[in-house]
Amino acid sequence: MPAAVAPILEVDVEHPSPRHVARAVEVLEKGGLIAYPTDTYYGLGCDLNSKKAIERLYQLKGRDKKKPLSLLCPDLSDVARYAHVSNFAYRVMKGLTPGAFTFILEATRLVPEVMMTKQKQVGLRVPDAGLPRELAKALGRPLITTSATHTDGTVLSDARDIKTALGHGLDLILDGGVTLNEPSTVVSLIGDTLEILRQGKGSLEA
């Protein structure tokens, strides 16, 4: 169960200390929920293997379970364990990762059903920020991730605002400073066709 109000731990987003990463991973392994900065918005995350934590995350967000959350992976090689990656998809993702993109692909059997759409698709991220990648790497599997927002959708860009709004349901808040970013760009690679489903921070021009 979370503390009455989740503690805040200041971190370096690009070069987090191993001690801070270890503390956050310990929380995740115990089924806890954390908030952490990324290259886009602050994220709310939990362990892929904790069904109770996933349930808590949906409740905290006030999110419809018909809207799957995404997986945050440490690198591109990890993506292939949780999604079917064609040669086309690999080439596209290799040029855009790490980066501010969420890729929609067909899920493998390692993905919990609650994380998939009815079409058995899943969203995956490899963010361009050291902290979330180090968290997933140290955990040994992807983080379940979603943006830190009020139930009305208002984005929370500061750790203290997150503590005020969501601290009652979190176990740890990693403070990387105020983030005035955009959401990730959502790109579908289903059927070897590139389709932008939501334009965000990530640019395909590169």
Summarize the structure.
With 206 residues, the protein is an alpha/beta fold.
Written description of the protein model:
The chain is α/β, with parallel strands linked by helices. It is 28% helix and 20% strand. The chain has six helices and ten strands. The protein has helices at residues 18-29, 51-61, 76-82, 87-96, 130-139, 159-166; strands at residues 8-10, 34-36, 43-47, 70-72, 101-106, 121-125, 143-147, 172-175, 185-188, 195-198. Strands 1-8-2-3-7-4-6-5-9-10 form a ten-stranded mixed beta sheet, with helices on both faces. α1 crosses α5 (130-139). It is globular and about 45 Å long. It starts with 7 loop residues before the first strand and ends in an 8-residue tail after the last strand. The relative contact order is 0.25. The mean pLDDT is 94.
Which helices and strands occur, and which strands form pairs?
Elements (H helix, E strand, L loop, with lengths): L7 E3 L7 H12 L4 E3 L6 E5 L3 H11 L8 E3 L3 H7 L4 H10 L4 E6 L14 E5 L4 H10 L3 E5 L11 H8 L5 E4 L9 E4 L6 E4 L8
Parallel strand pairs: 1-8, 2-8, 4-6, 5-9
Antiparallel strand pairs: 2-3, 3-7, 4-7, 5-6, 9-10
Helix pairs in contact: 1-5
